[in-house]
Write a structure and sequence with these properties.
- This protein is α+β, with helices and mostly antiparallel strands and 261 residues long.
- It folds into three domains: 56 residues, no CATH class; 68 residues, Thrombin, subunit H, CATH 2.40.10; 75 residues, Beta Barrel (Thrombin, subunit H).
- 36% of the residues lie in helices and 31% in strands.
- The protein is built from two helices and twelve strands, in the order H-H-E-E-E-E-E-E-E-E-E-E-E-E.
- The longest helix is centred in the first third of the chain and has 76 residues.
């Protein structure tokens, strides 16, 4: 019953609304206005409220979309900035290494370390540079002027590096500035400069570098400094412990030295 009453009241209101906008006499139009006022007023209020909500919703949606677009633009700018900063960093690294070692900077390829793993007592790094930029098997890899290892495998966009602290890796080495030769090797996190003839000069603080013998490692690459010497006059050879500061598990970026064509 209440529903029927409301429908009836609405119909009456609509009819009277029509009367109100016709050419009826003025007093009849006034009566119509009084009759339809209880119906029209709530409708007008509802319309205003709904219109206001729709306007607010539209503005809110616009603000949300604008915010998302701005966030997207900021992320794109951040990516571009990272690329630019990385390129600048690479140029600085290439310049420093080329000046220190005398290499052509175009032969130096900075690479990011993508992984570190061990297999059968050998330790490896996975890099994000490969044959696409000229990386070849046998290329030497350095970090802050210090030798890290050699490339053993490549794909178009990656390469694998065998680290110096792997089993049976032996590097022909010498003391910088003097003719003291020996072999550099690492085991159990300890690195040695051994096979040095007893009569050759070897002291704490000496800088050990690659000698270039054997053609696997480029000459003059930094290995480390001597921290202690074990020497006995009765022995043919003497050895020393070398401070090799590379921690493969913490490497973020290295540099690959490309071989000459």
């Amino acid at each position: 019953m209440p529903l029927k009453s409301e429908i009836s009241l609405l119909l009456i209101g609509l009819v009277m609304c029509l009367f109100n906008f016709t050419s009826l006499p003025k007093h009849l139009r006034g009566v119509a206005s009084l009759v339809i006022s209880p119906v029209v007023s709530p409708i007008n209020l509802s319309y205003i409220k709904i219109a206001s909500q729709l306007s607010f919703f539209t503005k809110t949606q616009d603000l949300v979309e604008e915010k998302l677009n701005l966030e997207k633009q900021v992320k794109e700018l951040e990516k571009r900035l990272l690329v630019i900063n990385e390129q600048k960093e690479d140029i600085v690294i290439q310049s420093e290494l080329s000046q220190f070692y005398g290499f052509d900077s175009q032969k130096l390829v900075p690479a990011n370390v993508k992984g570190f793993y061990s297999l059968e007592q050998n330790n490896y790094l996975k890099l994000n540079r490969g044959s696409k930029v000229g990386v070849q098997v046998g290329d030497n890899v350095v970090k802050d002027r210090q030798l890290v290892g050699t490339v053993t495998n490549t794909t178009s966009f990656s390469s694998t590096v065998l680290l110096l602290n792997s089993k049976e890796v032996q590097v022909p080495a010498k003391v910088s500035g003097v003719e003291t030769f020996g072999i550099f090797s690492c085991s159990n996190k300890s690195c040695l400069f051994n096979k040095v003839l007893t009569e050759q000069n070897l002291e704490v603080g000496d800088i050990v570098i690659t000698s270039g013998g054997g053609d696997r490692y480029l000459p003059t690459l930094l290995l480390g400094s001597v921290v202690s010497v074990n020497s006995e006059s009765a022995q043919v050879f003497k050895s020393s412990i070398v401070n090799y500061s590379i921690d493969p598990s913490k490497l973020g970026k290295v540099v690959i030295i490309l071989q000459d064509e």
